Amino acid sequence: MTDFLLVHPGGIILALDEICLYFQSTLTRVWSPVGQTPIVSVHPQRECVYFYGALNVRDGREIALPAPAATAEMTANFLMVLSMLFPQPILLLMDRAPWHFGEVTTLLQENERIELLLFPPACPDLNPQEHVWDCTREAVSHNHSYRHFQSLIDDFEAHLNTTVFSTSFMGAFPPLGLGAF
Q1: Which residue has the higher pLDDT, 25 or 20?
Q2: How far is CA 80 from CA 5, 63, 114, in A?
Q3: Across the strands, what pairs with 116?
Q4: Where are the domains positioned within the chain?
Q5: Full DSSP string of 111-154
Q6: Is 52 helix (H, G, I), strand (E, B) or coil?
Q7: Least CB-packed of 4, 52, 128, 164 within 10 Å?
Q8: What angle do CA 127, 180, 175 make, to 5 degrees?
Q9: Strands annotated E in the chain
Q10: Please, which pLDDT band fits residue 43 given cuts at 50, 70 and 90?
Q11: Which helix (DSSP H) or strand (DSSP E) does residue 81 occupy?
Q12: Residues contacting 137, CB < 8 A, separation 6+
């Protein structure tokens, strides 16, 4: 990664991942007054929507989009969106999910501006994007009381795209525009 920053000081480093958001509430601990049991509605539907997310580890900004599935085609489409949003070189950090290959490999071979760095197998905690999912679930979808799935989707997406997430991933590197190393 240091080599990438030396060669491309204004380059973008994105940690990519996807999540499946279910309408059914995920339960977690919650404070409540003594003697008042909190009530969380449980929906029998297993409706879900996928989200693709890419965290800029240098500034904590997130790019997230809903998708109907997590497939190589959807991943390639998301990468094309990222390449349109960022004209500078991109270092892409991803796990080794099966849908990160196939069409994705072809796209990366054709796009010289995107370099790929894969996380080691079975190490999800290394991916900063996983922590973004955790933060957003905590803020929006845990113990939720949404009556309509679309409202949950909209709030989840809004939280992702408007929150600046803190990340220590780049702690050893200066932020954009702050001079040499």
Answers
A1: 20
A2: 22, 13, 10
A3: 92
A4: 11-25+45-162
A5: -TTEEEEEPPTT-GGG-HHHHHHHHHIIIIIBT---SSHHHHHH
A6: strand
A7: 164
A8: 40
A9: 12-22, 48-56, 62-67, 90-94, 114-118
A10: low
A11: helix 72-85
A12: 26
Higher pLDDT residue, 67 or 37?
Answer: 67
Which fold would CATH assign to domain 11-25+45-162?
Nucleotidyltransferase; domain 5 (3.30.420)
Q: Report d(CA 100, CA 107) in Å as an integer.
A: 11
82 token code pair: 């990222």
Nearest 5°: phi and psi at 70? -105, 95
- pLDDT tens string 46-85: 789 999 999 999 899 999 999 999 999 999 999 999 999 9
Q: Which amino acid is at 138?
A: E
